[in-house]
Task: structure prediction
Amino acid sequence: MKQKKYIFWVLSIFLLTLYSCSNDTDGGVKLLKKTVEISADGTSATTLFTYNGGEIASIDGVQKRTDFTYTDGLITKVVTLNKINQQSETIEYSYLEGKLVEAESLGNYRINYIHNSDKTVSYEKLTINSGNQEVKEFHGTLYFENENLIKEERILDNTAPGVLSKYSVSFDYDSKHNPLYNILGYKKLLDYNEGISSNNSLISTVITSVSKDDQITSSANFYKSSFKYDLDNYPTEQVSENASATNRNAGYLKSVYFY
Result:
């Protein structure tokens, strides 16, 4: 009798767990396998994503291919081949206690990051000039909230004397899953803009201003996107009113996602 009760109890727990899992439409972890981007003239481009477990191995598109190298679960090297001119760029990433502190494009530029106590990240970009010397191009601050990059502020350092040039971009998000966020180590890549965020950007607002001799010239641009989602709250389709503020999908107005 006791054995029958025990079997009944175990079976009940199993069925309850199975029922809970079957009704949890927001708990599945997905990895993006393919995107098809459609431009305004109707032409399309397919990009394929390959993985080693949860690590991204490559992103292979029509115009470029990007290969990733990991060390201890962190992305430490990214090599991008331009298929049009066959030129490649290598970016190496350095970390301290799991936080990105440097991104270096070999022979081109270096970005230094400082993680502040208020959870903002300060950065500066140094480029290599013709005399093989480092020149400070700009510096700025990244702001985060709820695992999303919500704002970037930047001041240019290579302007003419007496000129102050500023740039800022802010992002408004949905509450759904960004399909790239599940990639191991991907959210650490601070130079990947809103692509590292937990959710999907609906509106990007870019503001630029230049001041000289007490005269200020400014402009604001808005970049909007709308999404369709599957039952697990991952996007299946993105429609943009114009090209992305950070050129992640420049030239393409519709993207279809496959998992």
